[in-house]
Amino acid sequence: MAENLQIRLAHPEEADRMAEIEAICFPPAEAASHEDVVNRMGAFPENFVVAVKDDKIVGFINGGTTDKPVLPDEFYHNITLHKKDGEIQTVFGLNVIPEYRHQGIAGELVEYFKDLAKERGKKALILTCKEHMIPFYESHGMKKLGVADSCHGGATWYDMQIWF
After folding, report:
1. What SS3 class is residue 106?
2. Residue 91 CA to chain centroid, in angstroms?
3. How many degrees, rounded to 5, is the angle at CA 163 between CA 161 and CA 164?
4. How many C-beta neighbours within 10 Å does residue 98 have?
5. What is the E.C. number (predicted)?
6. How many CB atoms sit inside 10 A of residue 137's CB?
7. Which residues fall within 8 angstroms of residue 3, CB to CB, at 6 or more apart?
8. CB under 8 Å to 82, separation ≥6 — which residues?
9. What span, in angstroms and rounded, lies between the C-alpha atoms of 10 and 128?
10. What is the pLDDT of residue 153?
């Protein structure tokens, strides 16, 4: 693990900080709004994991759970699609602020989230990512399925998944 790094479940009062990080890490057309982050945190707080270094949150990972092995764009905005007892864990976003990148923090977040999903009895972890992120996720055991049926933010996304 990266030096002086703590990976843990997020606290509800940290939603504002996570919304700030989301705005830093994603282009405006792709970033979850402050309201979306707060709503997600209210609906599924157990699926927010933060990275803390130098006594501040420097990154986080989050996602909903579902019974469907695909991640439709609608899931990002409609928290009612989250099924707490769903068999599949999704990743909506993996965020590490720029000055803390290339230190292994994103990898630690992914591994923690995968382990958490397994501990909770989930059968798979799924996400969509941009092409340049495919090797990163493959290095964490995920398989590329191909171009996703997503037009989120006007970008091209790829479906990735790992079954446990």
Report:
1. helix
2. 4
3. 140
4. 9
5. 2.3.1.-
6. 22
7. none
8. 43, 44, 64, 65, 66, 75
9. 22
10. 86
pLDDT score of 151: 84
* Separation between Cα atoms, residue 35 and residue 161, nearest integer Å: 28
- Residues 122-132 as b/e (b if ≥16 CB within 10 A, e otherwise) read bebbbbbbeee
**139: Cα separation from own chain's centroid:** 16
pLDDT tens-digit profile, the chain (164 residues): 678 999 999 999 999 999 999 999 999 999 999 999 999 999 999 999 999 999 999 999 999 999 999 888 888 878 888 898 999 999 999 999 999 999 999 999 999 999 999 999 999 999 999 999 999 999 999 999 999 998 888 889 999 999 99
C-alpha distances in angstroms, 74 versus 55, 78, 79, 114, 151? 35, 6, 9, 23, 11
With beta carbons less than 8 A apart as the criterion, state whether 1 and 108 touch.
yes
Q: Would you say 89 and 113 are in contact if contact means Cβ atoms under 8 Å apart?
A: yes
Tokens representing 137?
A: 């996720």
- 95 close to 61: Cβ distance less than 8 angstroms: yes
User: Which helix (H) or strand (E) element contains residue 124?
Assistant: strand 124-129
